[in-house]
Write a structure and sequence with these properties.
single chain; globular; about 400 residues; 3-stranded mixed sheet; mainly alpha; 9 strands
Amino acid sequence: MAHLAIGRPVAGDYRGVLLVNPGRSHLLQQIARIAFGVWVALTGAAATADRPPTEAVAKPAARSGYEPAYLWQSARGHLSIWWSARPVDELIGDPGTRPALKQRLELAKKLRRFAVDALALPDNGSFTRFAQIDRPHVVWNVQAAPELSLDPVRWCFPVAGCVAYRGYYNEGEAEAYAASLRAEGLDVQVAGVSAYSTLGWFADPLLSTFVGQPEPELAQLIFHELAHQVVWVPGDTRFNESFATAVERIGVERWLTHAAADPSVLASWLARRERRERIVSLLSETAGRLRAIYSQSISDEQKREGRRQAFADLRAAFATLREANPAFSAWDRWFAQPLGNAHLMSVGLYHDLVPAFLGLYRAERENLPRFYEAVRALAALPPEARAARLAAAARME
C-alpha cells in the first residue's frame, strides 16, 4: 500500500473543453488546464474499491465531490508541486544536485525507458520531472465504509466517475473530514500517499516522497502509475487498481530478471512479495468472514460481536506469522492501529482482481500489448459481464 493515491487516466482527451481567452498568456492557459485536470482527477488521488460485484452496485449511496473548498485545495496543492518540479535531465547535469538524488533520478530514468521499451507503457512526459516536497506524504486519502458493511463510501467527480476515497494535501484537513465521517457512525481510515496520477491529463513528476524507495518498489510504483494511462474505467476502482497492480508485478519481474539487476535484489523482492501476499491473504479471509457475518439475518449487536471476534482472530493470526518470521514486523504499525472495515476494503481494492488479470495475461501468452487490448475489451463491457469474465479469468490463474 506504499502508493495508495494512484491516479487515473481520463477516458478520452478532455483538453479541448477548456475555453481560454486567446489574449491570455500561455502560462495562464497552463494553469487553467492544470486546475481543471486536478479538479477532474484528484478525487482522492486514486486508491481503492471493494470486491465483486462491481462498484456500480455498491452501497451506500455515492456522495458529491464538488464542494468549492475541496476543489480549491486540490488545485492549490497540485499547483505548488507543478511550480517546483524541474526536468530530471537538468537535475542530473546540475553539479549542485546531491549525488544520492542524482543516482535515484538516473535509476528512475532507466525505469521510465524500460516501461516504454519492454512493457509497452505510454511514452510521454510522465516522470521526466522531479519535485521536492517537504512532508512525508504528498496527499492523505480518506476512505470510509459503514460499520456493518464492506461496501465503500464513494465520491463522484466528472470523468473519473465515483471512487472510494477522497484526498487532501494537508493531513489536518484530511483528519478533520475523517472526523466528520466518524461522527456519522462510519468506519474511517486516513492513509498517507506517496504518489498519485492525474488521469494522464499532464505529465506527473517524480516526487521526493517515493524516489528514494528500494529499486523494486520504485519500479512497481512507476509501472503502476503508467498502467492507469493504458486502461481506466470510471467508477470501477477495484478494476483499475487491480489491473495496475498486475502490471506492476509483471513489470518488476521483467525488470529484475532481464535488466541485469543484482540477483540478490530479485531474491529480496520475491521474499517481500511473498510476505505481502500472505498478509493480503489473511485480510481477504477476514473480509470474507465479515461479509458472511454482515449478510446474516441476526441482530446488529450479534454482527458487532462477530466483527470484534473476526478482528481479534486477524490480529492473533498476524502475531503467529510475526513470531515465526520477524520480517513480518514491517506490518507492526499497520496492525497496531484500530482496524475496521475501511482498512480491509482499502487493501482489497488493490488485490482482489489481480489473480484474474494475471490469468488473462497468461491466456494472452504473456504478450503485454495483447493483454492490454483484452483488458480494454473487458473495460467496455457492462459491469456484470465484466465481473463474470474476470471470475472466469481468475480460475485460469
